[in-house]
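Milestone 3.1: sequence recovery, worked example.
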């Protein structure tokens, strides 16, 4: 709680209100208690003024109809000390209010002397008076006791509401895509958060500049390397047409294989850099089923060479808003990835169909699958998981994820019971993607 700004504000404000309310309650209680005592003294004084002009008989009903707790006693002391020891003790006191002990009980006494020299006492037990005063004082501070919990609830609501913009800002940042580096808007946010938001925006600008520099470097490097690699591949092809010793043929085969892998890596790097550019896809409508058919036609020879049964499990007409090259790249990378990981005699099934309001592209293979711990990591660039193939670059799924996110879709990986991998890509239909 001490590390929470909300908790510290709540505790600080609560302690301030409780301490202030406690101090105010003590002062109010004491003030109300003294006021009640003064009021009761004034009653004794008023009764004394009434008895000053007339001598009361012992059977005078002065307490008739009065609450027992508010009854007073009027005692005639005569014109000289006489009677009980308590009455004689009162004679030595001067006129006025006194607190005396009678029968081991404290009393509040008002003594007065008439013009004929006779004296009398008006009294009331102090315990009764104090009880009345306490009840009156408690009624005075009762609103404080009721108000304190209400104030604590109000404080909690105010603190929560005041810090809510920070929580919403954090939620907005968490909901963003990893490549969304657009600035945070200041509209509708408290002024106190503006310096914080401005700092985040400056940080996002620096990150965007750094990522753009990195993309340019990767694209430029891949572009510059593509020409010499292509030339080397052509020379290797030319050498394969000549008669060479057996050991030279093996080395030439290794050279050609390395050149192919390097060329494939460069093409993937160029594609990754191209789709990393922060721009909106063109508003063109593309037939996803047509892209899938053409990709299957292009790689069918490779599948046959590897002994993999490649085909469509289901294919339906499906229109998706996006560039033809982008959708073709998605299908090609997924099918190529499945072929690389499917052993000889395995199957790769492709499906293009509509599921509710979404267009689904599904590629399922009978390969070894992906360990559960690698299902999310394989979308990162150059991450090939714990079961990498020799020819993989670790960029195919990363390119797929970037393109799919550009098209406002989603991609998920799951291992199927028959020890294979199922990749499901969901696109919004062409009308919704617009």
């Amino acid at each position: 709680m001490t590390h929470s700004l909300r908790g510290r504000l709540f505790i600080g404000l609560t302690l301030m209100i409780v301490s202030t309310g406690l101090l105010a309650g003590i002062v109010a209680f004491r003030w109300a208690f003294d006021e009640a005592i003064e009021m009761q003294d004034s009653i004794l004084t008023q009764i004394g003024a009434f008895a000053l002009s007339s001598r009361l008989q012992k059977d005078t009903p002065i307490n008739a109809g009065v609450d027992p707790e508010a009854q007073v006693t009027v005692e005639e002391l005569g014109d000289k000390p006489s009677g009980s020891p308590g009455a004689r003790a009162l004679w030595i006191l001067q006129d006025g209010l006194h607190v005396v002990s009678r029968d081991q009980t404290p009393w509040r006494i008002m003594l007065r002397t008439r013009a004929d020299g006779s004296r009398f006492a008006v009294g009331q037990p102090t315990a009764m008076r104090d009880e009345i005063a306490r009840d009156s004082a408690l009624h005075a501070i009762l609103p404080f006791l009721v108000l304190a919990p209400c104030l604590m609830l109000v404080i909690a609501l105010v603190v929560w509401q005041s810090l809510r913009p920070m929580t919403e800002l954090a939620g907005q940042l968490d909901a963003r895509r990893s490549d969304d580096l657009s600035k945070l808007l200041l509209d509708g946010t408290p002024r106190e958060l503006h310096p914080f938001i401005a700092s985040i925006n400056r940080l996002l600008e620096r990150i965007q500049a750094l990522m753009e520099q990195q993309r340019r470097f990767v694209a430029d490097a891949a572009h510059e390397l593509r020409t010499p690699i292509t030339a080397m591949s052509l020379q290797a092809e030319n050498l394969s047409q000549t008669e060479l010793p057996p050991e030279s043929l093996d080395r030439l085969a290794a050279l050609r294989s390395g050149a192919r892998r390097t060329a494939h890596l460069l093409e993937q790097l160029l594609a990754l850099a191209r789709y990393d550019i922060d721009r909106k896809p063109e508003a063109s409508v593309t037939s996803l089923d047509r892209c899938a058919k053409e990709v299957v036609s292009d790689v069918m020879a490779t599948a046959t060479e590897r002994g993999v049964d490649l085909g469509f499990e289901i294919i339906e007409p499906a229109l998706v808003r996006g560039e033809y090259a982008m959708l073709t790249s998605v299908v090609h990378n997924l099918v190529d990835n499945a072929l690389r990981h499917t052993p000889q005699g395995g199957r790769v099934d492709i499906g293009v169909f509509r599921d509710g309001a979404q267009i689904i592209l599904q590629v399922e293979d009978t390969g070894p699958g992906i360990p559960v711990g690698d299902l999310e990591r394989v979308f990162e660039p150059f991450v090939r998981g714990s079961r990498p193939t020799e020819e993989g670059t670790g960029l195919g799924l990363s390119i797929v994820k970037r393109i799919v996110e550009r098209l406002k879709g989603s991609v998920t990986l799951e291992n199927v019971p028959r020890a294979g991998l199922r990749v499901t890509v969901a696109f919004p239909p062409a009308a919704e993607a617009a």
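The radius of gyration is 48 Å. The first strand starts at residue 73 and ends at 78.
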